[in-house]
Here is the input.
Amino acid sequence: MSRSHSLPQTFTDRLSTIYPHDIQETILSCLASPRKTSFRLNRLLGKREEILNQIAGLGLKIQEVNWYSDAFVIDGDKKLLLDSDIYKHGQIYLQSLSSMLAVLVLDPQENDYILDIAAAPGSKTTMMASFMNNTGTIIANDVSPKRLHKLKLNLHSQGVTNTNILHIPGERIWQKYPEVFDKALVDVPCSMEGRFVASDPKTYEDWTPKKGKILSSKQKHILRSAVSSVKVGGTIVYTTCTLSLEENEMVIDWLLKREGNSIELEEVQFEDVDSLPGLTSYKNKTFHPDLSKTLRILPTETMEGFYIAKIKKLESTI
Here is the structure.
């Protein structure tokens, strides 16, 4: 398959076991070239009309996204935008569309108390703060000092004032914050298969067939920690930018078995987004039937491959 020749053969072979042939072909075609640049408006530092007028003055062609009115795709070179004052002053933020979906599913509200358990570099954190209009509190955690530095810079540049930074392993957060948050975003470190670009070996040079399996254990315990940090009645959104079952459906299936009736999945749906329901079986494995309520976002020319699960907490898990 010439367009995907530089992607790892084991990766492309596995795609054929996950997706129907026509969808696999479409995915490989989309992974063959870089995605278009997308960005969102930052309402904390300007009104929508004013920011759009400034963009229009740049002579840059942009296309509004149907499912989120503050999101846009650039038609052409992004350099004009990167050199502009509105970018330098934080009035816009370059972010993948798939990443924005995670925040829309979590649905932050003013005065919420939210945990962002693996927050750096802060794309979703700053978007949540914008939704909350800088009210309430976000606890933004990360274990990497380097990534935390980037998080701090982004919070500052985006005018975020309702966020406190934490630096501890995500697996231990529930001990410090037992059942206190209204909501939690669990965007775990993953193998990033949904971001592969065949023409850019840097996007997959560290990938191995075992990487997803190795990461899966860590993802499970970070997620379970987040569940125990959220109060009864709260919401947890789990996301990855990978296509791996070990990091997606198998993590959620494990959680459902561990927590039993203490949690339930809520359906995730988006119109005008190329997606498929989460898998309820794979080869000789059968998963919880409610995994069909989770969502696999397919890679396209504008979207990264992504996975989203929305969890409702019904009983205490401490």
User: Anything to note?
Assistant: Residues 1-5 have pLDDT under 50 and may be disordered. The first strand starts at residue 38 and ends at 41. The CA atoms of residues 49 and 210 lie 48 Å apart. The chain has eleven helices and 15 strands.
